[in-house]
TrEMBL record:
This is Transcription initiation factor TFIID subunit 2. Signal peptide: none annotated. Keywords: Initiation factor, Nucleus, Protein biosynthesis, Transcription, Transcription regulation. The keyword Transcription regulation applies. It comes from Folsomia candida (Springtail). Its main location: nucleus. Gene3D superfamilies: Neutral Protease Domain 2, tricorn interacting facor f3 domain. It is found in: Nucleus. Residues 1064-1218 are annotated as: Disordered.
Length: 1218
């Protein structure tokens, strides 16, 4: 087999040298001045004798000199194209993101070491040519300094030097970004050994990678110390880290090779948090049957962390917010999972590095996979399955909103040629994003507005979800080859790396550099880069799987790794009593939707029958498939018998609700989550109830709980109540049932009898024996009861009566919980419980029906009695928090959110100054974020330009990089959320020209050291203004025409649509038909211009899903509808789509005639045509379209039904017709 991947080996001319060793010596670390001074020394082996220059990566540093072998001075050129993405004097960009994307991609690729680029070009002198011999190493020394960096290094300098917080510094990393603090070849594929020397103040400790050799006094006679580290394991530059500060040191009592560091005053928290780390070491070493790859391991807890956890070779830097005491329950699970991932990344990310940035999915996926195996062993299968289900939902949500995530983008827009054994699992259609080539953004990939070619151009949110999808794909691979064989694949990779490193250490000259094989080498399986076993790539991993298992997974990689998207199944069935079979129908009708792809291959269907659980493996070969599954059971009319479940247990069931003739209790599609899929299973409510009560798989139970929301019946109420009270049920299912029961109760508000939902359950579990209305002392020793005690009040807060108001009984119940809350005898803190009560109190608030006269001020006397109670309790909690701080200020966070909700719903004056005070630097991070969320919410509805500039000042100048990042994500999330209140809003100041210019300037010229923030700003700019030139840069006379034209474009965004709506006050935005599924304005940027050419890309009623009613209205062609004085409802004008549909069908007829075929009229019959308001210019183009259209004509949409053995149904895919 010949399998060609351009990233299997780095082209020899891209980097004609190798680095075998590197020295970093920082002699001038000044934390208060935020500067460092030092040098680096690289040992380089040329691959050719005529080496003329060396390209290195370095940013924001000042370079003083470059020397060869301490003798020959070398000239150098130092320029970073990312310092100015789009030139200031450029008049062609028009502040449009479509031009920025191409410039951003080109600028980043200029410095990409895997593409042979670099910011620093050292020109080797001619007089040193005798030492630049092929295969002979030479030393290149570079002296440099760094002051007030934007990224790479973060200095924490407290305002009060005598306070609790102490000054310290540490390295930060966004993918490969070591170039931000020392010159290097900043590539994961360039590995070498390291010697690290750091000179610090006497009271400081320097923690870095490798083994600590010695601590000596500085040679200059000062009282400073020099820490010497040596890393003998070949490591890439991005995996080198450093932390300097007055750390307290704690050696793990059960593993002396492990050392923990924390800031002063946190030692007690550190001891408790790290007590289980030795268990993780034992688990990973036993699982992988190999020793920990490094001689030591260090964890450092610091303030203002760039991320919660960042792994470096033999060390990990974590946020102090992960520390906790024995009294904190909620944080325990979060901290343990972060710690598990950090340790797993030591094996697959630091020790086993990646060949190219496009292979990062392997390191992220395998490390997350290993960490969840630990979670499954120590926290149970239910928690493991719940995490799998949650990650899957996150991936589906992102792909449906933005497009399919491509794990390995190296082969995008390139053909993949391979030959191998045939497989039943393949993919012939993938809809990453339904966009036209004409609308493709220059420089972008896969239809996104950013490039996937380099991690420094990719949206941070995309990378976050990519990590989750990578783990799901690794898990899918494990299920296909078997758990034991998959662990053998990982073990073999580690064993080969151990052998390679041992050989490199014995050679005495650094790393062994094997010669690259000829490009035409043929192997028996998928070929890979065999140069270095400590580097992993998609192709090499595929080969490793082939060598160990004998299974060729090339097609699997092409389907799930090199292509994006997920599968969407719709399943329905009927029972045939005469044949005792289940007639199953599985459809894939949503291929035209964003992120959805076609699937061809095996699919497991699980039937729970009266005689047990039976699984059937079906072969999906088209978009519409049917199967007849013979049941193993007969219907039971009279006799009763216990029913066996999939777990082997037998249970008694009440079968009175089911069909007497059918033995099927419920049906599940892909029960093991072996695909990245969304399933819509259509079955009666009683089957969902059986599945919820008797299925033992957590994802199946949660799916049943969510499905019962659509069946607000008394039986659903009883079933959900039973699950909440069931002590044998997993707590995540019980808490989810609480929230769904509240929604069911709201839907049944007119017929609901008895007290509010769940109030009796709560009093039964937690009420006093003599007086259930008074809550007992808190006792959180039972974890299920603890989480239930938080979930029931939170879900009850969403209860509403027939008038849409929270019942007074619920409000009184919540107030009593505050009154009788007693945690004096409890060993567990009630911080999170009290925060949940505050949150619940805020969620009871509904929009006020104002009785005040227009212009009157809101006073304490004008508040209703219920609102006064809520306000008093929130104020009390907020003031109490200032005197008695709780863990992570969780109560303050919820109080701020509740206050904003009271403002938003008109109960309090709309004043944002109190939130700005809480958002200042120096407050706790979560408190600042909650306050800023309130400011953002106020700004988008009632704010002024000053409020928008306040937010942008924090994005630009805040001392904490994490706050700048989180605020950007917060603004994006708030702008894409639906409005919870129905108040009319003016034009948001965030859409102003001033804000656009500031964001454009920041992301173009002021983010040289923070690639993550630059990508955040690109996301923000896209959310606000879209791809094209922002409307705020146009004259008022041009905005209407431009907004109208953008509604037809696949690159339309929220801003263009909202502007068009605001500028057309006389046109009523009519609601779409209830049967039509319309893309919301939130994602109308994904609408495709060519949807009219796809007759199959329709919903059930024939409405193109990528069109919106009214989007083709034109004042010149049809009369606008005038608002009636009383606001009467108007009918939907379905004729709005006529012009575009007819024109697209006309174009389709022309294309068919050009191919010599008869034009098809079947697609024309699928549309409703109502009116012929045509301009004269269009009549000439539509002469053949002579038949008249009636206002309504009945039609039946014919769907092709195919059996499972048919392979021709894929031709109906709208994606293929594109």
């Amino acid at each position: 087999m010949i399998y060609k991947n351009k990233f299997d080996t780095i082209p020899e001319d891209s980097r004609p040298y190798n680095t075998t060793h590197q020295l970093i010596s920082l002699t001038g670390i000044n934390i208060h001045r935020k500067s460092i001074l030092g040098l680096v020394e690289l040992t380089i082996i040329p691959k050719k004798s005529n080496l003329r220059c060396v390209k290195l990566n370095v940013k924001q540093c000042k370079i003083y000199r470059a020397v060869i072998n301490d003798t020959f001075e070398a000239q150098f050129d130092y320029y970073d194209l990312t310092a100015e993405i789009t030139p200031l004097d450029s008049n062609t960009n028009g502040h449009a993101l479509e031009h920025f994307c191409a410039d951003h991609k080109n600028a980043v690729l200029e410095g990409d070491p895997d593409a042979g680029g670099g910011e620093l070009i050292v020109r080797l002198p001619q007089e040193a040519s005798h030492v630049l011999v092929e295969g002979r190493p030479f030393r290149l020394t570079i002296e440099y300094s760094l002051e007030k960096p934007q990224g790479g290094l973060h200095f924490v300098v407290p305002k009060d030097p005598t306070g609790i917080e102490k000054p310290h510094m540490f390295t930060t990393r966004h993918e490969n970004s070591s170039r931000l603090w020392f010159p290097c070849i900043d590539s994961f594929s360039e590995v070498c050994t390291w010697k690290l020397e750091f000179t610090v103040e006497e009271s400081y400790t320097a923690v870095s990678c490798g083994e600590l050799l010695e601590i000596v006094q500085a040679a200059d006679g000062s009282r400073r110390k020099v820490f010497h580290y040596f890393l003998s394991v070949p490591t890439a530059a991005p995996n080198i880290g450093l932390a300097v500060g007055p750390f307290d040191i704690y050696v793990d009592p059960k593993m002396h090779e492990v050392t923990h560091f924390c800031l002063p005053g946190l030692m007690n928290l550190l001891r408790w948090t790290s007590r289980f780390l030795h268990e993780m070491f034992e688990f990973y070493e036993e699982l992988l049957t190999t020793r920990f790859p490094y001689t030591c391991y260090k964890t450092v807890y610091i303030h203002e962390a760039y991320e919660e956890m960042q792994s470096f070779a033999s060390m990990c830097i974590l946020d102090t917010c992960l520390l906790h005491t024995s009294a904190i329950l909620d944080q325990t699970y979060v901290t343990r999972r972060f710690t598990a991932v950090a340790l797993a990344e030591q094996f697959y990310s630091c020790y086993i590095s990646i060949q190219h940035s496009s292979d990062s999915w392997l390191a992220k996926g395998i490390s997350n996979f290993l960490s969840l195996l630990y979670i499954k062993k120590f926290l149970g299968m239910n928690e493991y399955r719940n995490i799998i289900f949650t990650d899957l939902q996150d991936v589906l949500k992102y792909e449906q909103q933005y497009g399919g995530i491509v794990l390995d983008p190296c082969m995008l827009d390139k053909s993949i040629t391979f030959a191998g054994p045939s497989t039943t699992e393949s993919n012939s259609s993938c809809n990453v994003r339904p966009s036209n080539q004409a609308n493709q953004v220059p420089g972008a990939d896969a239809g996104f507005y950013f490039s996937l070619s380099n991690p420094h151009t990719i949206s941070p949110e995309y990378l976050k979800v990519l990590s989750k999808k990578a783990h799901l794909v690794i898990r899918m691979l494990e299920m296909r080859i078997g758990a034991t064989l998959f662990i053998q694949v990982l073990n073999k990779q580690l064993s080969l790396a151990n052998i390679y490193i041992a050989q490199s250490q014995q050679s005495g000259m650094g790393l062994v550099v094997p010669q690259a094989p000829p490009p035409t080498t043929q192997v028996d399986g998928p070929s890979s880069n065999t140069n270095n076993p400590i580097l992993i790539s998609t192709a090499s991993f595929t080969r490793a799987v082939f060598n160990v298992t004998g299974k060729d997974m090339t097609v699997f990689m092409d389907q799930w790794v090199r292509q994006g998207g997920h599968v969407h199944f719709q399943m329905s069935f009927i029972f045939n009593r005469k044949r005792n079979t289940v007639e199953l129908e599985i459809k894939q009708e949503n291929l035209h939707q964003l992120g959805v792809r076609k699937y061809v291959g095996p699919l497991t269907v699980s039937l729970q029958e009266l005689d047990g659980t039976f699984r059937h493996l079906l072969q999906i070969e088209g978009t519409h498939a049917k199967a007849d599954i013979v049941c193993h059971s007969k219907s039971r009319r009279q006799k009763k018998k216990k029913i066996p479940l999939c777990t082997g247990e037998e249970v008694d069931m009440d079968l009175s609700a089911m069909d007497a003739d059918s033995p099927v209790l419920w049906i599940r599609l892909d029960p093991d989550i072996s695909l990245i899929r969304q399933t819509d299973v259509r079955q009666p409510d009683f089957q969902w109830q059986y599945q919820l009560k008797h299925e033992r798989d957590v994802p199946a139970q949660i799916q049943a709980v969510l499905a019962l929301e659509a069946f607000p019946t008394p039986q659903t109420r009883v079933t959900l109540t039973e699950m909440i009270e069931n002590e044998q049920c997993f707590i995540r299912v019980r808490t989810e049932a609480c929230y769904v029961l509240a929604k069911v109760a709201n839907a049944m508000s007119s017929t609901w009898t008895g007290p509010p939902a769940m109030i009796n359950i709560f009093r039964k579990l937690f009420g006093s024996f003599s007086c259930p209305g008074i809550i007992k002392h808190n006792d959180f020793s039972n974890l299920q009861h603890y989480y239930l005690q938080k979930s029931i009040p939170a879900s009850m807060a969403s209860l509403r009566n027939t008038h849409g108001i929270c019942p007074s009984e619920v409000l009184k119940f919540l107030i009593d919980l505050f009154k009788y809350n007693d945690n004096s005898r409890n060993q567990i803190s009630d911080n999170y419980y009290r925060a949940t009560l505050v949150q619940s109190l805020g969620n009871t608030v509904t929009p006020v029906v104002s009785l005040l006269q227009s212009g009157s001020d809101i006073t304490a006397e004008s508040l209703s009695s219920d609102t006064r109670l809520i306000m008093e309790e929130i104020t009390r909690c907020l003031n109490l928090e200032k005197m008695l701080h709780c863990y992570k200020y969780v109560v303050t966070v919820e109080c701020l959110k509740a206050l904003r909700k009271l403002q938003k719903f008109g109960h309090l004056p709309n004043n944002v100054e109190v939130f700005k005070a809480y958002a200042e630097y120096g407050q706790f991070h979560d408190v600042r974020l909650a306050a800023l969320e309130a400011v953002v919410d106020y700004t988008r509805t009632d704010g002024k330009l000053d409020d928008a500039e306040f937010l942008l000042n924090i994005v630009e100048n805040d001392p904490v990089p994490t706050m700048r990042h989180d605020l950007c994500r917060l603004i994006i999330r708030c702008l894409t959320e639906k409005m919870t209140d129905r108040r009319p809003r003016a034009k948001s100041p965030l859409h102003s020209k001033t804000i656009a210019l500031r964001i454009w300037k920041k992301m173009n010229y002021e983010c040289i050291g923070d690639a993550r923030l630059r990508c955040d700003l690109v996301d923000l700019y896209y959310t606000l203004f879209g791809i094209r030139k922002p409307l705020c840069f146009l004259d008022d006379s041009q905005q209407n025409d431009e907004a109208f034209s953008r509604r037809k474009s696949a690159l339309t965004t929220r801003e263009g649509v909202e502007e068009f709506k605001r500028e057309s006050p006389t046109i009523i935005e009519t609601e779409p038909p209830k049967t039509a599924r319309i893309l919301s304005s939130k994602r109308e940027s994904m609408a495709s211009d060519n949807s009219g050419d796809l007759p199959e890309a329709m919903d059930i009623d024939g409405m193109p899903t990528s069109f919106e009613p009214g989007m083709f209205k034109n004042d010149d062609l049809q009369k606008p509808r005038i608002k009636e004085e009383k606001g009467a409802k108007t009918d939907v004008d379905n004729g709005d789509h006529h012009d575009e549909l007819v024109e697209s069908n006309k174009d389709k007829e022309v294309r068919v005639k050009e191919e010599g075929e008869e034009p098809s009229t079947s697609s024309h019959k699928k549309h409703h045509h109502h009116h012929h308001n045509k301009a004269k210019k269009k009549k000439d183009k539509k002469k053949k379209h002579k038949h008249k259209h009636k206002h309504k004509h009945e039609h039946k949409k014919k769907t092709r039904e195919e059996t499972l053995s048919s392979g021709s149904s894929g031709s109906n895919s709208p994606v293929q017709q594109q």
